[in-house]
Amino acid sequence: MRLLVIGLLSALIGASLIAPIQNAPMDGDQSLVVSSTEAVPEKENGKEGKPVAKIPSVPQIYEMHIRSDIKNRFSHTTVTSKVRNFADKAQEAVFNIVLPETAYISGFIMEVDGKNYTAYVKEKEEAKREYDQAISSGQSAAHVAVSARDSNRFTVSVNIEPAKKAAFYLSYEQLLNRQDGRYEQVVNIHPGQPVKDLSVEVVIVESRKLINLNAPPLRSGNEIDTSNKELDPRADIEKLNDTAAIVRFTPNLERQKQLAHVFGTKEDDGLAGQFIVQYDVERDPSGGEVLVQDGYFVHFFAPADLKPLPKQVVFILDTSGSMWGQKIQQLKEAMLKILDQLNEQDSFNLVEFNSNTRIWDLNNHSNSEWYPHSNNYWYSETNQRVVNLENGSFPRAYSANADNIKKAKDAVNALQSDGSTDMYKGLEVGLHLIEVERTDKNNKVKRQPIIIFLTDGEPTDYSTEIITTKTSEFNSGPRKAPIFALSFGEGADKTFLQKLSLRNNGFSRHIYEAADASLQLQDFYKQISSPLLSDVTFKYEPTITSLTKTDFPIHFGGSEIVIAGWCGTVTPIPTIDGFGREGHISLKPVVSKSISNVERLWAYLTISQLLEQKEAMEDKKEELKKKALEIALKYEFVTAVSSLVVVKPNETKPVDTEEAKKKPEQLHYHPLTTTITSNKFSAQSAIASGFGGAVAGFPSMPSQSFGLAFESPLPMPGVAISQESDIDALFEARPTMIPIVNTTTKSTLEVLLESLEWLKDVLTDGFVKGPTGTYKLGVNETISDVVVCAKTPLNQEGHCTLLHECPQVHKLLQKADDFFNHMCILKNEFAGVCCPNNP
Ligand SMILES: *[C@@H]1O[C@H](CO)[C@@H](O)[C@H](O)[C@H]1NC(C)=O
Ligand SMILES: *[C@@H]1O[C@H](CO)[C@@H](O)[C@H](O)[C@H]1NC(C)=O
Ligand SMILES: *[C@@H]1O[C@H](CO)[C@@H](O)[C@H](O)[C@H]1NC(C)=O
Ligand SMILES: *[C@@H]1O[C@H](CO)[C@@H](O)[C@H](O)[C@H]1NC(C)=O
Ligand SMILES: *[C@@H]1O[C@H](CO)[C@@H](O)[C@H](O)[C@H]1NC(C)=O
Ligand SMILES: *[C@@H]1O[C@H](CO)[C@@H](O)[C@H](O)[C@H]1NC(C)=O
Ligand SMILES: *[C@@H]1O[C@H](CO)[C@@H](O)[C@H](O)[C@H]1NC(C)=O
After folding, report:
1. Highest mean pLDDT: which of 7-21, 318-332, 637-651?
2. Does residue 241 line the site of ligand 2, with CB under 6 A?
C-alpha cells in the first residue's frame, strides 16, 4: 500500500516536492536480474542461498546456449535453455530473458514433453475485453520486476511433470548502434542458477576489416563499466579472417560462482551479468559503403576524416528542490568534467531553472539575474523584475577558453537546489541565447547549436503537452536548434522528454539515479560532443523506394548513419551533401555486394523509425502505427504494435491490449502477465515497482498450463498501480507487449456459454426468455448507443451493453436471475446488461 501511495504522489505532484522520498534507499536499479526464481514460491524454503535438500526446489537448467550471429551490424541472437524437473512433483520452470531495449523478438518455441509449441507474431486485438474478463474472474498477483538498464524482459513459465524436460528457444534481432567509435553486442546472462553447460558465442562477419575486436569486463547491467579486472570474461577470440571472427565465453560452474561472488550476488543464483563484445570496422575514405543484395540495400555512413564543427552548447539545468542531495552533487561532478571537454573553438552558456530561470553571468555571479517564471502558480514572488526576451539583459555566449571554463566551474559549484520546476522559461531563454548568436552578423564563426536540457521532475508551469508544443513552435524555421533532453531519475517524465527531443531534432537519454549517474552524464555528453556535419542529406535515384530516413540534422563523430531501402536492379549511388568545418561538402559512397541479406535490416530500421515518429507526431499516429504493424507482421517482429502468440492445442484465447490513451506520463511501466489454465483463462496484473520489496509469486499453476509476459521498458521505482482500481490505467500504459494466445476460433456464443453456465437454460435460437419478455442476445451485434442504466451488478450507475460486450461482469452473474436483475433493453429488441462505466 505504501508503494502505491508513493507512486501516485510522484506521478501527481511531480518530483520537485518529494525529494526525500525519491532518495529512499530501495532503488530498483540496484537489483539486477536473478529474477527467474522470484516467481517460484518453493524458493522461499531456501535459507541464505543454501539448497534445502538434494533434490533442487526448482527445475534445473542443464544447458544454456546463447548464440549471436552478426552480419553487417545486424545481429540475430538465439537463446536456448533446457531444463529438467528432478523432483517427484510437478514444478514450474520460468524462462526469463533480458534483452536489449532496441531488440525485437522474432521467434519463440517451447518444447514440452517432446512436443514443440511455436509462437507467432500477430496484431493485438480483443485484448481489453479478454483482459477485463480475466480480471473479473478475480485472479491477480503482484510481481516485482527486476531490471537491467535499457532492457526489456521476456518471461514464460511452464509446468513440468516429474522427471520430465522442457526447452525454450528464443530469438531476437537488432541493429547494432555505433557509439563512441564502436559497435557493442550486449548479451544478458542470468539463468538464476549455476548452469553446467553455459556458453555464449558471438559470430561476426562484416564486409570490411574488423578492428578493435575485444570482450571487455562483464557488467552488472546496472552501472557503467568500471573495468574490474576480476570481471574479465577470459573470452576466446578467434579470428577466422580479416572480416570474420568468433568470440566465445564458456564459464564453468566454478567460474560462474566466482563471478557471482564478484558481482555481490548469491553463488546459488549463478552468474547474473552482461557479456559484451565490441568491435569496429575499417572505414572507406568518406562517402560510406553501400551494400546490395536481393533488391535491398543498406548504406553505412561514418566519415572518418572530418574535423569537428565549432559548437555553441547551452546547458539548461534543473536545480529544483528535488535535485537536492546526491543528484545535484552528481550533476556538478559531471558538469565539471564536461566543461573540460569543450574545445577552445566552442562557446557555451549556463542556464539553471527552478521556480525561475537564471542565466549565469560568469564574470560576476551576483549579476546573474533570476528571470521570473512563465506560469508558475506555486512559487510566485512579488518583487521580481519583469523582463521578456526582448528587453532582458542576457549574457552572450562565452567562448570556451581556459579562463571562462574556470569561471563556469565556479558557477557550477555554486548551484543550489530549491523551488519548483518551471521548465518552459528555461527552454525559452536557452533557445533565445542561441538565436542571439545565430543572428549576430558580427559573429565570424558559425557554430553548431546544441541544447542540453536536464531535468529530474515534471513541469510545474505548464502541462508537458503545452511545453512540447510551445517549444517546438518557438524553435522552428531557420532558428531550429537540436534539443537533447536528459531525464534524471525516476521522477522525470521520460515519454515527454523523448517527444520533446524527437520533435526538436535531438534525442533523449535516461540517467539512472545511481552511484554512477555522473559517469552516465559524461557518457551521454561524449555522444554529442563532436558534431562533424550538419544538415546531412542523402539523395538516391528516383526509382529507389521504401527508403528509411535520409535527412539528418547533425552527424556526430563516433556514431554512424544507416539508411536502407529497395533498389531492385538499380545500383544505388547517392549524393551525400552536408556542411562541415570547411563548408559545404558533397560525397559519394562505394558500392558492393552484401555478404548477407539486408532485407530484415531494412525491416528493422523501418519499423524503429516509424515507431519513433509515431511517438513524436501528434497527427498521423494511426497511419504510422498501421505501417509499422504491417511490416512487423510480415517479418515477424514483436514490437510495440505487434504481439507474440503462443499456440497451445485445444484451447487458447487472444489476450492483448490497446495503445495508450491518456495520462501515459504518469504511468511508466505496466507489465501484465497472463496465465492460461485448462479452459479457463486468468490474468495477473503486476505491480510496477522497482522498490525491490517482496511480493507474492504466481499462483501455482496446474500441469500443462503456461503463462507469458512481456514487459515494457524499464521498471520505474516510484510508480505503482493497484490491480483492481487501475485496470484501465494498465491499458493506458505504453508500450505494451502483451501476449495474444491464439484461439482456435471459438464463437462469441461459445465463449458466453462457457462463462455463463445458466445461459443455455434461458436461450432459444438466439433469444433470451426473461421475466419481462423475450429479447435477442445479439452475439453478432455491436450496439454503440449510450443508454444509461441505474444498476450494474456492482450497484453503480452504468450503461447498457450487450452481454458479450461487458465481460467484466460475467463473474458476477452466477445465475439467470442475477442477469435479469441487471438486464436492460437496447433498441427495443436486444437484452443488454447494465455495465459499469470505465472510470
Ligand atoms: C523444437 O524446436 C527446436 C528449435 O527449432 C528444435 O531444435 C527441436 O529439435 C524441436 N523439437 C521437436 C520435438 O521438434
Ligand atoms: C571470412 O570468413 C567468413 C566466415 O567463415 C566467410 O563467410 C567469409 O567469406 C570470409 N571472408 C574472406 C574474405 O575470406
Ligand atoms: C557585480 O554585479 C553586482 C550586481 O549587479 C554589482 O553591484 C557589482 O558592482 C558587480 N561587480 C563588479 C566587479 O562588476
Ligand atoms: C520589459 O518589457 C515588459 C513588457 O513589455 C515590461 O513590463 C518590463 O517592465 C520591461 N522591463 C525592463 C527591464 O525594461
Ligand atoms: C487436445 O488435443 C489433443 C491432440 O491435439 C487430443 O488428443 C485431445 O483429445 C484434445 N483434448 C481435448 C479436451 O479436446
Ligand atoms: C490458431 O492456431 C491454429 C493452429 O493451432 C492455426 O491453424 C490458426 O490459424 C490460429 N488461429 C488464428 C486466429 O491465428
Ligand atoms: C452469428 O454468426 C455466425 C457466424 O457467421 C452464424 O453461424 C450464426 O448463426 C449467427 N448467429 C445469429 C444469432 O445470427
Report:
1. 318-332
2. yes
